């Protein structure tokens, strides 16, 4: 048991999939896992552990933003001996050629956030994925015939801003899209020597203002979720 996660020792799997939304975590767990157990619901942030294709996997929500995923991923890595976290979320595309429903396997998370600097003295505004999960996801996608984009993304601390022009960091690193969590996840994994990756489905195209409807979002994320689950099994098989 940790400060923010009430699971007991042994109730969290070595690989955790982390959507942001607790209800999305519930949806994923109930749809794909067998032998399902709710192992933590502190602050209504749900963590479920069960089996997928014979492998023990935990699905748990991260909440929104670097501070939130920073807390949950640190406790998972440091207090529950989790080896790998795969964030699965949505993002807004900065480019019109990156379309709704495209899926990005994040190579590098770039941010103006001070999270990594003040937490761990990690300098710089770009942190790459950590460990071998990124390559396993690419290989799993190839085996499944799933098309992935690979590249840098922007992890922003800001959802609403006065000036809606793209921040300078976007052009500096040629960021494909924007989300709010990967930078902190990668920072924690780097500091603790763990594995972390991020998969993102494009839910909004910022230049054209296209977006996936609220009703369509649940099922539209299924291809990314299934890819992450299969990659999680392959990661465990590689240990």
- Look at the structure and name the CATH superfamily: Nucleoside phosphorylase domain
Radius of gyration: 17 Å
The major beta sheet can be summarized as: 5 strands, mixed, barrel
With strands numbered from the N-terminus, the spatial order across the biggest sheet is 5-9-8-6-10
Approximate helicity band: 25-40%
**Low confidence ranges:** none
Which structural class is indicated by helix and strand composition?
alpha/beta
By DSSP (H or I, 4+ residues per run), the number of helices equals 8
Q: Into which percentage range does the β-strand content fall? A: 25-35%
What series of H and E elements makes up the topology?
EHEEEHEEHEHEHEHEEHH
**Assembly level:** single chain
- Going by CATH, the architecture would be 3-Layer(aba) Sandwich
Amino- and carboxy-terminal Cα gap: 25 Å
CATH first level: which class? Alpha Beta
- Taken together, the total number of domains comes to 1
């Amino acid at each position: 048991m940790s400060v923010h996660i009430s699971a007991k020792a042994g109730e969290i799997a070595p690989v955790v999939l982390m959507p942001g939304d607790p209800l999305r975590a519930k949806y994923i767990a109930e749809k794909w896992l067998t032998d399902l157990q709710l192992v933590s619901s502190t602050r209504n942030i749900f963590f479920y552990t069960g089996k997928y294709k014979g492998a023990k996997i935990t699905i748990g929500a991260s909440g929104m933003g670097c501070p939130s995923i920073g807390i949950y991923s640190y406790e998972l890595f440091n207090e529950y001996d989790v080896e790998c976290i795969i964030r699965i979320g949505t993002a807004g595309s900065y480019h019109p050629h990156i379309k709704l429903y495209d899926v990005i396997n994040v190579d590098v998370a770039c941010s103006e956030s001070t999270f990594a600097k003040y937490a761990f003295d990690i300098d710089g505004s770009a942190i790459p994925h950590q460990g071998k999960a990124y390559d396993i996801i690419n290989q799993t996608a190839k085996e499944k015939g799933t098309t992935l984009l690979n590249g840098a993304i922007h992890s922003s601390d800001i959802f609403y801003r006065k000036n809606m022009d793209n921040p300078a960091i976007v052009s500096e690193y040629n960021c494909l899209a924007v989300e709010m969590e990967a930078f902190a996840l990668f920072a924690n994994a780097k500091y603790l020597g763990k594995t972390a990756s991020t998969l993102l489905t494009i839910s909004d195209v910022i230049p054209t203002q296209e977006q996936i409807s609220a009703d369509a979002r649940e099922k539209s994320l299924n291809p990314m979720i299934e890819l992450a689950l299969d990659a999680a099994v392959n990661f465990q098989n590689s240990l």
